[in-house]
Specification:
Layout (H helix, E strand, L loop, with lengths): L6 H7 L1 H7 L2 H16 L5 E3 L5 E3 L9 E3 L3 E4 L4 H10 L7 E3 L2 E4 L6 H15 L3
Antiparallel strand pairs: 1-4, 2-3, 4-6, 5-6
């Protein structure tokens, strides 16, 4: 609770507040890094679908949404199967399935974690 006393500290140190208030250019930068890296993998296509939002969730903001720049990924593996493999992997990676594609929302993904996503997708494409 001490972190909440200072707004600057709270926004920097509390992960949920940091994600909710992050500048969209930072999220966009990570999304571009992910899409570019995934497009470098064989049989993988990543792009930016329009019209998506990040769901804030329950608690004090139920039903609230923020603009998002998700990365949609088309794989040679069924999206549901790929999502399950990613969830069950180490590290566990969560994404949404949308139109038989994977949808990654980078709002809560750090720059360091982008490479982990790419490695995990590479493993899925190779067959697990």
């Amino acid at each position: 609770l001490r972190l909440y006393r200072d707004e600057v500290t709270a926004l920097r140190e509390i992960p949920t507040l940091a994600a909710l208030t992050e500048d969209s250019t930072d999220t966009w930068s990570r999304a571009c890094a992910l899409a570019n890296a995934l497009n470098g993998l064989p049989r993988v296509r990543a792009y930016f679908p329009e019209g998506h939002h990040s769901q804030v969730g329950g608690g004090s903001l139920p039903g609230e949404a923020l603009p998002a720049c998700p990365v949609a990924v088309i794989l040679p593996v069924a999206a549901g199967q790929a999502a399950r493999m990613l969830r069950e992997g180490r590290p566990s990676i969560w994404c949404r399935v949308w139109k038989d594609q994977l949808l990654f929302d980078l709002r809560t993904v750090s720059s360091e974690e982008v490479g982990e996503i790419v490695d995990a997708v590479r493993t899925v494409v190779r067959g697990g």
